[in-house]
Prior knowledge:
Keywords: Cytoplasm, Signal. The chain has helices at 2-19, 67-82, 160-176; strands at 20-22, 34-36, 39-43, 48-52, 55-64, 98-103, 115-122, 139-144, 147-154, 185-190, 202-207, 218-219. The chain is of the alpha+beta class. The chain has one domain: Regulatory factor, effector binding domain (Multidrug-efflux Transporter 1 Regulator Bmrr, Chain A, Alpha-Beta Barrel), CATH 3.20.80. The strands form 2 sheets. Strands 8-5-7-6-10-11-9-4-3-12 form a 10-stranded antiparallel β-sheet, with helices on one face. Strand 3 and strand 4 (48-52) form a beta hairpin. The two termini are 32 Å apart.
Amino acid sequence: MIYLFGLIGFLLALTAESKVGNSSVPNFCSETEECLLFDQICKTDEYEVRHYDATKWVSTEEKSMFMEFATMKAFRRLFEYISGANENGEKIEMTAPVIIKIAEDKSPLLFWKPRIYTMSFLLPAKHQANPPKPTDTKLFITDMADMKVYVLSYGGWMLSMTEKINSNKLFSALTSVGAEFQNDYRYAVGYNSPMKMFNRHNEVWYVVEDEPVCSSSEELELSPMA
């Protein structure tokens, strides 16, 4: 019986490490020791499709008219958590990417109204099973479900304007091929610290609904990015 429990624990540890791991792959995740890992399902000239296992994140919400203002406050709050503002008083290693959940525009006037931005830090592999509770009541642990996502990558700085341009580009590409995706929200995804000046990597994610559309694509044999 003890052996069985030990084996289960070992398998759970392997599962956690398969979701968050060595940042040497993918090569655009190079500033942290651990990154969110994925399987690439297919790639077209306009987007790629990835599969992500379920993971845990620490998250916070901030309301603002502009993403830049919201993310500055949210980032500071999350950084305090990994710096020791948690129930264990433990310093937690920074990982990548940082994601921001953004409500999709449903009205032309929404751009001029405050909206809620939810920023999340990925928890390292060692904390995936049992993350330390935040001491700040504005922070909470998020269980991200197993999912497939449509991804568009772009360089430069992730600002309100550049993020919107690229999310519109992905939205249009998916709509044109009849793809089914969650269109109530999207994710703005960043892999770089503010100190990195060049070769920055950002992404837009839309969550796949039904089966992903990979027409006119290079079909890939599933192989984990690990």
